[in-house]
Amino acid sequence: MSARMVVILTIVLLAIVSSRTGNPAAQNVPRVCIQDGCMRGSWMRSLHGERYEAFIGVPFAKPPLGALRFADPVPNDPWTEKELDASGRIPRSACYQLNLFLPERGVEGKEDCLYLNVYRPFKNSKAEAQNATEPIPTLVYIHGGGFLAGYNSPLVAGAEKLMDHKVIVVTIAYRLGAFGFLSTGDEAASGNFGLKDQRLALRWVQQNIEAFGGDPRLVTIMGHSAGGASVHLQMMYLGNEGLFQRAISLSGNALAPWCAPKVNPELLARRQADLLGIKGAYRMNTSELVETLRSIDADQFVYSYKGFTNGSRYPVIVYGPVVEALTVPDAFLTDTPKALWSRGKHLSVPWLTGIVPNDGFVFSAPILKDSGCSKETFAQQKTLLLNVLGGAKQSDALPILMEHYVGNQSAIGECFTKDHVNLITKVFNEGLFVYPLALSVRQHANHNRTKAPIHLYKFNYKGPYSYSSIFAPETDTPQDYGIVHCDELIYIFRAPILFPDFRRNTQDAKVTKWITKLLVDFALNGTAPTSTDGEVSSSEFPEALELINSNNVDEPIVQRYTNFYDEAMYDFWTRFYSY
Q1: CA-to-CA distance for 71 and 77, rounded, in angstroms?
Q2: Count of CB atoms within 10 A of residue 483's CB?
Q3: CA 238 to CA 491: how far, in whole Å?
Q4: 521 FRET partner, CA 20 to 30 A, in 66, 326, 364, 564?
Q5: Rounded CA gap, 507 and 558, in Å?
């Protein structure tokens, strides 16, 4: 992270802290004591001015340094301070990352990053606290970022919008990239460390949330994109039983190709070592390899990720989940997600999941940066398509796609241009988001003995701000790319370094109220509004609750039910991934 960026982020966070009522050093600040010790937090204000308590930067694991790099997380020791400063005045770093979706950000973070934030409603009086009988649900949020980037900071995942409801919000960090997912395929470095960080954070919540006024029997895990896939994966780890009772996956699914376990993680680890200049990377045994990798400066790892793209500017998710050997102690994933889910090997908890219309834009946006056609450009674009889609390695995979979506490859011309971005978005959207979701729902129906329902949503509301301005910031003329990946997050979390706040009582503020109420109600009851009985059967695909724009000035938002299942689409991608 550049020094300038550090200064900016610190100033913004201090501004947030200073806007809270009360002096953090004074006696009138929130305090909580847990098994690890006591902590003091700070006051914050919800979107509509309700005061709530914030505890920022609470450790849930020992810093994963030295021998703990490429190792399972270890619960932290009780802190030595008389009172931990969890006011947020000194921000914790994000986990080490180089966001290939946003390369202009550069390298960010530190290895010492396993901290979480807790936000809880403020009780106005002791009598109110003593008489409160209604249980308060807890939402545990897992950020996205392709397993290689992402933040739980209040600067991009602020709880202000959710805290207008009676809910406790926990946002967690987990190791990313090589630090979270490098594996040698054996006990030397079993892998899935980022997922195990999430698991440890959930165990922390179960042990400590009651001290914050939460009900450990009302915990919901919620994630977006890779975080949504992580939620799906946490459902498949049966050892999590009792740690959460509901699950929410926003635009993310563990059956997506970008979440598929690496076929040869050991070879990937050796290639990583080779990129770092380690001599004998392909000859040493796995224990020697891991010990050598532990001695390398962390920033060298992050800078080396570009070597995996072979010069292409397109993002490739290098690291992710792996299948662990059965001999690994406390293994997280011992079979592929597709195999586990298809056999019904998952926790029986209600699941709310859905999409936005153009989730695929997060992968197609780089095409907008291509200024001309050449053989090299088209070669990179074909690499983008096949690497990102995954699952189809045959040389005729691209013609198969072109024939299905445009008739034939010759209709494209020499290469993909800006004129084709909507087409490529559709390909990615269906192959990477809609199809995996449809597959998971169809397979769930085959194992409905669990009686845990799936509820679907489609966020189809177009507001004044969009993450398209983040994914494609350098376009010459502004263009409407529709509702793209992450756009629903604008209405769920406050992100003061990315977007302005909505004014009260505006149409956008109403959308925020609608979607945050949907999430909190689901966390409380495990149900969502539905026009049917909500049951999933093998012959029916459940309807999705959809929010769309309206031309009616008096009712600017419309809620309706829709079915986004397309049998032709489903059949095509089933065939494509079977080639």
Answers
A1: 17
A2: 25
A3: 32
A4: 564
A5: 11
CB 223 within 8 A of CB 249: yes
- β-partners of residue 138 are 168, 219
CB 137 within 8 A of CB 516: no
Residue count (the chain): 579
Q: Which amino acid is at 317?
A: I
Largest CA distance in the chain: 74
CA separation for the pair 499, 418 (Å, rounded): 26
Per the CB < 8 A criterion, the answer to whether 461 and 479 are in contact is no
Q: Are strands 42-45 and 51-59 parallel, antiparallel or unpaired?
A: antiparallel
Question: How far is Cα of residue 79 from the mean position of the Cα atoms in its chain?
Answer: 29
**441's torsion region: left (phi>0), alpha (psi -120 to 50) or beta?**
alpha
Q: What angle do CA 126, 135, 459 make, to 5 degrees?
A: 125
The answer to whether 333 and 322 have CB atoms below 8 angstroms apart is yes
Q: Which among 119, 349, 332, 133 has a CA at the least distance from the CA of 220? A: 349
CA-based nearest residue to 91, from 149, 201, 10 = 10
Name residue 251's amino acid.
S
156-to-150, 335, 447, 496 alpha-carbon distances in Å: 9, 34, 38, 7
Q: What's the count of helices (H) and strands (E) in the chain, helices before strands?
A: 17, 16
Q: What is the pLDDT along the chain (579 residues), one digit of tens a residue?
A: 443 443 344 444 444 444 444 343 446 899 999 999 999 999 999 988 899 999 999 999 999 999 999 999 999 999 999 999 999 998 899 999 987 666 667 788 999 999 999 999 987 544 455 555 678 999 999 999 999 999 999 999 999 999 999 999 999 999 999 999 999 999 999 999 999 999 999 999 999 999 999 999 999 999 999 999 999 999 999 999 999 999 999 999 999 999 999 889 999 999 999 999 999 999 999 999 999 999 999 999 988 887 886 555 555 688 999 999 888 999 999 999 999 999 999 999 999 999 999 999 998 888 887 667 877 777 777 777 777 787 545 666 778 888 888 876 666 777 888 888 899 999 999 999 999 999 999 998 777 655 788 999 999 999 999 999 988 876 556 688 999 999 999 999 999 999 999 988 888 998 999 999 999 999 999 998 876 554 444 346 889 999 999 887 677 789 999 988 999 999 999 998 886
Amino acid 223 reads: G
DSSP 537: B
CB 391 within 8 A of CB 400: no
